[in-house]
Design goal:
With 285 residues, the protein is of the alpha/beta class. It has a single domain, classed as 4-Layer Sandwich (Metallo-beta-lactamase, Chain A), CATH 3.60.15.10. Helix content is 24%, strand content 30%. The strands form 2 sheets. A 7-stranded mixed β-sheet has the order 1-2-3-4-5-6-7. A 7-stranded mixed β-sheet has the order 8-9-10-11-12-13-14, covered by helices on one side. The longest helix has 15 residues. The termini are close together. The model has no long low-confidence stretch (mean pLDDT 96). The structure holds zinc ion (2 copies). The site of one zinc ion has 8 residues, from helix 1.
């Protein structure tokens, strides 16, 4: 039997979950304690405290109520924090409320509306910032980053003793900077890469690539607000990421086909850094 969950090790992170375009997407990064989207209620994801929702389509939020229900079975878990586009968060809440009414059972959660540009602290030095994606309904992408302190560039090369003395004298020797860890952009036109070029510099970029060849026309792909590989190829030299995770593939392709098409069509220098988020063999879950 095929497992629902696919797991990819992408040092220093693990990306685990499921993603099939239009069917369900839910990806967990255990090292960061976050879940991107909840299109399918995976039991082992129910304990994740930060649930980050891209948009209100069923394949991205359809499993949320069931997931919160499973969380309720866990011992003494605080309500999950749910981050979602400000324009749809009330509708998502309504769905969850209707579900808890129907079940006569509370599904508590803490709701955090996110507009493009909004920034929240997830834990200690880890933050999330929303950015705009380009879909047929209101949608967000998210950049996860760490705030770190770095030695001021003008002090680089000075002996450690000298820096320590300056610090002792009360001089500010470091600047705060952002280390871009993981960006998540799904259900969007490729324009997202132009409008938010910093995601091309994120250590890991998780990006949708729903359509891969002529089985879907570029026109229809655009009409649905999705990325077609024909268009992604135009950006092939711009990805500075250590890893580019491609996901949300259409059912038009089997997992094996998706991998073969990407290997054939992507330039080698990019394919080497690409993780095809699909089961190794067999059908889609
Ligand atoms: Zn989708
Ligand atoms: Zn969608």
């Amino acid at each position: 039997m095929t497992s629902v969950v696919t797991t990819k090790k992408i040092a220093p992170y693990t990306i685990t979950g499921v993603s099939v375009g239009g069917v369900y997407t839910s990806l967990k990064i255990p090292e960061l304690g976050v879940l991107f989207d909840a299109g399918f209620p995976i039991r082992s994801f129910a304990g994740t405290d930060h649930i980050i929702i891209s948009h209100g389509h069923g394949d991205h939020v359809g499993g949320l109520g069931a997931l919160l229900g499973i969380r309720g079975l866990l011992h003494r878990k605080a309500p999950a924090k749910i981050y979602a586009p400000a324009k749809v968060i009330e509708s998502i809440k309504d769905v969850i409320l209707a579900m808890s009414k129907m079940q006569r059972h509370d599904l508590p959660a803490e709701w955090i509306p996110m507009n493009p540009g909004d920034e929240v602290q997830l834990k200690s030095d880890l933050y999330a910032r929303a950015f705009r994606t380009f879909h047929v309904v209101p949608s967000n992408g998210y950049q996860l980053f760490r705030k770190v302190r770095k030695l001021k560039p003008e002090l680089e090369g000075l002996p450690g003793r000298e820096i320590a003395e300056r610090r002792k004298r009360g001089e500010e020797v470091t600047n705060e900077s952002e280390r871009l860890e993981v960006a998540y952009a799904t259900d969007t036109l490729p324009r997202v890469l132009e409008k938010n070029p910093s995601i091309l510099k994120s250590r890991v970029l998780i990006l949708e690539c729903t359509f891969l060849n002529e089985k879907k026309s570029l026109k229809d792909s655009r009409a649905g607000g999705h990325i077609h590989l024909d268009e992604l190829l135009e950006y092939a030299d711009q990805f500075e990421n250590d890893h580019l995770v491609l996901m949300h593939f259409s059912l038009l392709y089997s997992p094996r086909e998706a991998r073969a098409i990407l290997e054939e069509r992507l330039p080698k220098h990019l394919f080497e850094r690409v993780t095809v988020f699909a089961p190794k063999s067999g059908p889609w879950p």
